[in-house]
Specification:
The termini are far apart. It is elongated, with a radius of gyration of 21 Å. It contains three helices and no strands. It is an all-alpha fold. The longest helix has 29 residues, at about 30-60.
Length: about 80
């Protein structure tokens, strides 16, 4: 048996989550671990997006901030 290059992690799931994951894996004809890994990756990406959106909103709502249009910002680099 060939060892996997990916690090293994043991995750405890609620019975409903386990059943959903197994059904989804069966429907996609993929291993449960593959579906779980993709879902975790998507969740981490979503979490990162939410953190960045929160920071962007905080910056956008600060008083006294001057904004530069997209065209003006890129005009400096495209000369």
């Amino acid at each position: 048996m060939k060892a996997t290059a990916k690090k293994r992690v043991l995750v405890s799931l609620a019975p409903e989550s386990r059943d959903y994951l197994q059904a989804l894996a069966k429907a996609r004809q993929e291993p449960v671990a593959t579906v779980a890994s993709r879902m975790i990756d998507a969740g981490l990406e979503l979490e990162a997006d939410l953190v960045l959106a929160e920071k962007a909103y905080a910056r956008a709502t600060r008083k006294g901030v001057t904004y530069v249009s997209h065209d003006k910002a890129w005009a400096k680099f495209l000369k």
